[in-house]
Every structure is written in C-alpha cells, then in structure tokens.
Amino acid sequence: MTDDEDPALPADSKLTRTKQLWAQAGKFLTGRVARPEGERLPPGQHLVRDWPVLDLGLQPQVRREDWRLDVTGAVDNPVAWDFDGFITQPQATEVCDIHCVTTWSRYDNRFEGLPSRALADIVHPRPEASHVTLHGADGYTTNLALEDFLGEDVLLAHAWQGAPLTRDHGGPVRLVVPRLYFWKSAKWLNRIEFTTADRPGFWEVRGYHNRGDPWREERYSE
Ligand SMILES: Nc1nc2c(c(=O)[nH]1)N[C@H]1C(S)=C(S)[C@@H](COP(=O)(O)O)O[C@H]1N2
Ligand SMILES: [Mo]
C-alpha cells in the first residue's frame, strides 16, 4: 500500500466515480459568478441612466408589418416568420444589465421576447452547428459561439420597459445577450444563421474581441 492510498477512503466507490464524472462535465455550474453589489459594474465601465444609441449611423426603418426573420443554416427546421408568427412563439421577460464596450453600462433593463433556447427547440440545430451569425437590416453582422447564443438569458427582444422596442434601439426585434458586451446584441435582427464554423462579424474583424466578456474585459483582439 502506498502513502496516498488510504483504506478508509474507498477511492473507487460508485459515488466517487460519479462525482469525478460530474467534475469533468462541470455539472451544477451555473456559468454565473456571485458578486457583491459593489461589483455589479464590470471593470472599466461607468453607470449611465439614459440609454445611449450606438450603431453604424444608419437606422433602417422596419415596420412591424414589413419585418421578417429568417432562421437558416445548420438546423433541421428553418423558419421564416413575420411579426405575427414571431409574437405567437413562447415569451419571456427578463431584467438585465447591459454593458457597452465604449464603457457605459445601464442597469435593470426589462426586455420581453422569445428566448433563444425556445427558438432552438423549434429549429433544432444540427449536431455540427457550433456558432451563429446574427444579421441586422443595416448590413451589420456579429458572431456568437452556440453556447453563448443559448445562454438562459438571451432573448430575441421586441419590447423594453413594457413598450415596443423603438427604431433607434433596433426595433421591431433585436437580440439581447446580457453577459457579453452589447455589440453582440444585433439590432434590426432579420436573420439568424447557424454555422458549422466561427465567422467573425463586423466588429470582430475590426479589432474587437471575438467573445467580448465584460467581466474579463475582453474588449479588443490583441
Ligand atoms: N444591426 C446593428 N446592431 C448593432 C449595432 C449596429 O451598428 N447595427 N451596434 C452594436 C453596438 S456597438 C452597440 S453598443 C449596441 C447599441 O445598442 P443601442 O443603440 O440600443 O444602445 O448595438 C449593437 N448592435
Ligand atoms: Mo458598442
């Protein structure tokens, strides 16, 4: 018997093996970090009370009656919804903080919309789907790893603080990905493309970080 084998600890019990498998799989991890209230603001950010508008300078006017969403690519059931088709899908409300890479953060935004997970239940991403590209009506694109897109708090949002999302903030429908810098939250969303490889989007090919986690200050690609 060697020093690290203690007969009182049955290292090969069923429970031990099961718990080792849990550790390998990261079971019970929420993906969240508990933070005291004083650490609600990510590093390098400052709090704003208004809601700044940021985009490429052209804000397409898309009326609800003209809006379409195509969900395409590596999925078993592609969908093409008009606004009525979209709004009759499962709905969720959530309150989240948003963090722009230009250093403003805004607390307690109440968004309503279709959770990305509910969308995935409908379109069935294929096993080889690894990323999504979000397309906006202004030609903007941004990429997300599938696991970030399928975060429990990701919404295809059509309302903010109880009112329809306005044109300047990406209405009729935008993505909201609260855990990443806000450039990942595509406005004027009109296509979600499931891809089998990572395709960096508008800002990601212009020096911005591919993932953009504000808690790690993943602002730039260098
Ligand atoms: N379609 C589209 N979505 C976009 C952008 C854009 O230019 N076009 N800008 C991104 C950036 S850089 C930010 S910070 C947020 C700003 O959203 P807001 O104007 O509602 O604050 O939208 C993101 N989504
Ligand atoms: Mo931004």
TrEMBL record:
Domain Oxidoreductase molybdopterin-binding: 60-203
InterPro entries: Mopterin_OxRdtase_euk, OxRdtase_Mopterin-bd_dom, OxRdtase_Mopterin-bd_sf
Coiled-coil regions listed in the entry: none
Source superkingdom: Bacteria
CDD domains with a match to the protein in the record: arch_bact_SO_family_Moco
PANTHER family: OXIDOREDUCTASE MOLYBDOPTERIN-BINDING DOMAIN-CONTAINING PROTEIN, PROTEIN-METHIONINE-SULFOXIDE REDUCTASE
UniProt protein name: DMSO/TMAO reductase YedYZ molybdopterin-dependent catalytic subunit
Species this chain originates from: Labrys monachus
